[in-house]
Amino acid sequence: MGEVIVITGLAQGMGREVARLLAQMGDSIAGFDMDGESIRELRSELDIIGGNHYLEVLDIRDRKGILEFRDRVLQLFGKVDTVLSNVGIGFFGPFEEVDLEAAMRCFEINVIGASAIFQAFIPSMRENRRGKLIAMSSLVGQVPFPFESIYTATKFAIEGLVQSLQYEVSPFGIKMAIIQPAQVSTSFAAKIHQLPPEDSPYRDRAKRFIDRDNELIKDATTPSAAARRILKVLKADNPKLHNQVDFMSTFFLFLNRNLPKRVRDMILLNHMDIKV
After folding, report:
1. Beta strand pairing status for 4-8 and 28-33?
2. What is the pLDDT of residues 210-248, one digit of tens each?
3. 3-class DSSP state for residue 145?
4. pLDDT reported for residue 185
5. b/e per residue, 21-35, with b = 16+ CB within 10 A?
6. CATH no. for 4-188+221-247
7. How does strand 131-136 pair with strand 174-179?
8. Burial call 206-230: b when 16+ CB within 10 Å, e when fewer
9. Each residue of 76-99: pLDDT tens digit?
10. Angle between helix 149-169 and helix 100-107 axes, rounded to 10 deg
């Protein structure tokens, strides 16, 4: 019998591809997303593939809804082996010009959302003395990028959350992992890229950053390729704490560990074409 795996934010991109791969392996999938049309499409795809699945339209900010989702999933499947917190939104812009109310929404979804889904399923995993909690972070969870200060802060928070939480839950057989993509060829970045106003002192560098990012995405890892690497983490008996799914994240994290900050900064500014 396959495993029972919960995935948040699975309607599109990497989450969708992971769900399809797991279904093909005979695993049971439970998950939710706000995109109702894409959820219906994925449900139809999984019906064709076969196996058990339960998908809902749900907002990660709906704390009561998450607990009700958890109860339905445990009633249907009896257990959950792995939770992949994949839901998240981006945030782009010079920090000086950031709308902090909008920034709060990013923290609510990216950080508190992951916290809510983990907190919901920890009790059943603790009672069963086994389980895996896996969080989708980012390269910027360790390597800050300019014009992504708020998004970077949320991913630094995810890294801290997982690394702290692992000490609390490991005595109960619960294992934790972080996945750190840099660029995957989805529409994720395009949805958040917005030029600062004409009179902004940051406009020129922000435009160069966006242009460079759009160029890099053309050769980025595909969602299906990233999903295959994520699958290995989900299926590992003892997953590594930090896991990359593309060359760029592996490369920059290597530099971050081994080069002086001055050299790392120079490489990053040149790479993103924003050197002054």
Report:
1. parallel
2. 999 888 888 888 889 999 999 999 999 999 999 999 888
3. coil
4. 66
5. bbbeeebbbbbbbbb
6. 3.40.50.720
7. parallel
8. beebbeebeebbeebbebebbbebb
9. 999 999 999 999 999 999 999 999
10. 30
Residue 44: pLDDT over 60: yes
CB atoms within 10 A of CB 65: 16
Tokens describing residue 188: 């994720």
User: What is the token pair recorded at 56?
Assistant: 């809902």
Using alpha carbons, select from 92, 114, 274 the residue that is nearest to residue 196.
92
pLDDT tens-digit readout, 120-161: 999 999 999 999 999 999 999 999 999 999 999 999 999 999
Question: Tokens representing 100?
Answer: 């902090």
79 residue type, one letter: K
Q: Alpha helices, DSSP H only, in 177-260?
A: 203-217, 223-235, 247-258
